[in-house]
Write a structure and sequence with these properties.
This protein is mostly helical and 307 residues long. 68% of the residues lie in helices and 0% in strands. The chain has a domain of 92 residues: Alpha Horseshoe (Leucine-rich Repeat Variant), CATH 1.25.10.10. The chain starts with a helix and ends with a helix.
Length: 307
Amino acid sequence: MAAIDAILQELAAAKGRIAPAKLTQLSGLSSEELPAFQKAWDKMGLPQKKAVIATLTEMAEDNVELDFFPIFKLTLNDDDEDIRIESIEGLWECEERALLTPLIRLLTVDSSANVRAAAAQALGRFAFLAETGKLLERDGRRIADALLETIDSEFESTDVRRRAIEALAAMSHERVPELIQETYESADVKVKASALYAMGRTCDPRWLPQLIDETANRQAELRYEAVSALGEIGDDKAITHLLPMIDDPDSEVQAAAIAALGKIGGPVAKKALTRTMQRPEAHIQELAQSALETMDEFDPPLFERRN
């Protein structure tokens, strides 16, 4: 406890940024150590709190061995909405079902629309876990009920509703197709982008015609979401429509097209990616190499596919 006490005292007294090397000592705090962290946290000013939570999030992204989940769960209750959002993001890799209750609470009662939207996105991960049988059935019902309550609320903001639709799309709920279609018909680019993203999350080939049409949209954001969704659905009918997207004027769309080919796999996609490796742009070569590695990892040899 002595080392933890020292860093907590330093955190409480500090006015500026704390070196990440010292913050590593906060990894894996026990339930006995958390009250001491809470006490130090309460003594910090808001700028210091934001600096600490942002640094912990960055560190966790860079090093999977660091475990700041206990801290992020605690700071989900902070008074500042930015800290609550950062805490949700810090818990992105956490799949503990105990996290469902606080996330549903944040989605349904938090005063900040930005926090509610972040909670909806986080619940999308748990919706996928429920759909794949990695959560209890009653957990899946809780998730679906909370998301639908949000979607159906006439008082909810557009951003929160669209994030909730994205999350629900991972589940085989009877209302998903109609909600996606309704969202797709919106004139709001952000809302329509959410519909395209949701189509990909369903992994349902029924959406191929709309997604293929959207690869020609003038809005780069919509082309990006359409291309990414085609990769998620994984139907090789999309390959001929993805090949031209490697030369899209938008670099993010290019990257999405290359990644999508790697996810779909097969000889045509592999040939296209191998050819892309000959391009002079270093970043395109790297993207193609990564896509080929993805393909090799998930695409079995032909003799295995026949069995």
